[in-house]
Amino acid sequence: xxxxxxxxRGEDGIAMVIDFLLSNARLVLGVGGAALLGIAxxxxxxxxxxxxxxxxxxxxxxxxxxxxxxxxxxSASPTLIKxxxxxxxxxxxxxxxxxxxxxxxxxxxxxxxxVSKPESKSKRLQLCVLSLQERLQQYYNTRAALAPHEVQRAxxxxxxxxxxxxGFMHSRHPDMPLGEMSLGGSLxxxxxxVSADHACLLxxxxxxxxxxxxxxGEQTLLTHPLHWMVRRVNVEYFPKGRSYWDRYLVGGYLSxxxxxxxxxxxxxxxxxxxxxxxxxxxxxxxxxxxxxxxxEIRPRDEKEGAxxxxxxxxxxxxxxxxQGDVALTAQPELTSPWVNAWHLSLYPWETQRLAQLDAAxxxxxxxxxxxxxxxxxxxPALRPLKAAPLANLILHLSDSESDWSEISLDVRFQQCxxxxxxxxEQGALHSYFKPAVNLLSGLSEDQVDQMGFMxxxxxxxxxxxFI
Length: 467
Prior knowledge:
single chain; 467 residues; alpha+beta; Beta Polymerase, domain 2; Poly(a)-polymerase, middle domain; nine-stranded mixed β-sheet; 15 helices; MID49/MID51; mitochondrion; membrane; transmembrane
């Protein structure tokens, strides 16, 4: 993975030198070295720019010269370049973050605005005196863990919607072979963080075992391990039309896109949502125009009866096929442009494995995962990192680290940050259950740069992730 990108600030002077260095680094250092050099030089450039905004041109030139004199002293050996740049970058990062920490901890003259916000100031002061272990526990309790009443309310709303949709489908499409609808996903598994704002409604489709065959992705023309296909079989003995789902065949395969389109018309565009809204005493409306099946629920204002300003709850309907421990979902947004492809969901395997490991040793793996999810969701630079890479990061680390007790939470958290930097440098984090799947493949160069810079800063000063 090449970290150079277009920096939009490299028109002259030191930026041209950096861009030239990055463009040729792969030849000298190899992929891993070039990746590290890219993140390192990016870190130094941003520190220089930050200093430049607070000083005049002469001071900027002096700081540039001092910074790059240090880099020029590093040997031409790739190994020493790596170690040398790490040292320089870490020194600058540590200096900058120490200054930031000092600025937060010092008590300047209190303005009227500061007097009006004593709670905010006290939180910053606490951040400076707590140990990392204490800060992690505090962050978990205030950001990662959801209040029980909030979870219960979201689950109750989702179950009410589930009951309404199931009743409607049974009355309008009694011949459609559907299993019992249920809730799934992070809200049900106690892995949702920050706020209870989304839920998943699983809609299982019943297939005749003698008429349908689930084909693994590696055995299909798509060759993608997560893109499975559902083939109609035994057509010579059971002609098309014997199965209800034959009407959604495309080229001899059950089309996930056609199934989603059917549910969109049968549910999203047909149900009387205003009537359901009055029954549930909240505003329920479909989110139309996207590739997925989503509902938005907003609570009503008790006084005025109008739409409340509270955060809405989004519920996704997910058509599902199950065979043994294999769960295939109809998600065209993940399998596009293949209309026949179904997505192999690894979420149940990952969640079950984490729960088993924690149950065996009373570990804090799920605890750590929720903290990492909250950090990434609330930090703009880390927001592109979703739950799947973070869960697989912990699963991989669990193979080499056995101590996941509460007292080791800070050590494991720092180790997760270090491991994540390594995966970003390599440009690949392979799925624990499907090694052929690279969970970082959807990230752009600029996103990797931003995440790499933030995580490098967090190595020496982890508290910047909690501000």
